[in-house]
Amino acid sequence: MKEYRVDALYSTIFDVSFLVRYGYYDVSMKKTESTIIDNSELEQYYGSPDSFYLKFLNLQEFSNLLEKVNLREYFNFNKIDKNIRTEPVLFNIPKNQNTRRLYKMPNLYSYLELCYYISDNKSVFLRA
């Protein structure tokens, strides 16, 4: 029984939708039982990102797009060096009256490529 719960947990964690929503960006996580959860209910069980204003960067909407459109066709997983190289998105906000805080976040193209790679190779990560 316990092995099934661990498998269910890893199936959720290595799912592309989960990785897109929670793999990089800071999220306040909720404590929940390890079960396979429908993608539309992830935020209810796991929390939501508090690093960004959700109307600016809504990773749930990005995840919903992945269910409607096959974005894998933009990547070549056999020759990764042929994929587009991107730069991180840079922006800054006021830190105090005299200085600004610089933020860097991965370009969504590269971030999605990484999520696909992790999901496709989850057995390798689980053996390590």
Describe this structure in words.
The chain has helices spanning 2-13, 16-22, 42-46, 59-68, 108-120, 122-127; strands at 89-94, 100-105. The protein is mainly alpha-helical and 128 residues long. The chain has a domain at 2-70 and 108-127. Strands 1-2 form a two-stranded antiparallel ribbon. A hairpin with a 5-residue loop joins strand 1 and strand 2. Helix 2 (16-22) packs antiparallel against helix 4. The model has no long low-confidence stretch (mean pLDDT 75).
Number of strands: 2
Low-pLDDT residue intervals, each spanning 5 or more residues:
none
Q: How are the strands ordered across the major sheet?
A: 1-2
How far apart are the termini?
23 Å
Task: Please give the structural blueprint.
Layout: H1 2-13, H2 16-22, H3 42-46, H4 59-68, E1 89-94, E2 100-105, H5 108-120, H6 122-127
Antiparallel strand pairs: 1-2
What's this model, at a glance?
The protein has 128 residues and is mainly α. 41% of the residues lie in helices and 9% in strands.
What keywords describe this structure?
two-stranded antiparallel sheet, 6 helices, 2 strands
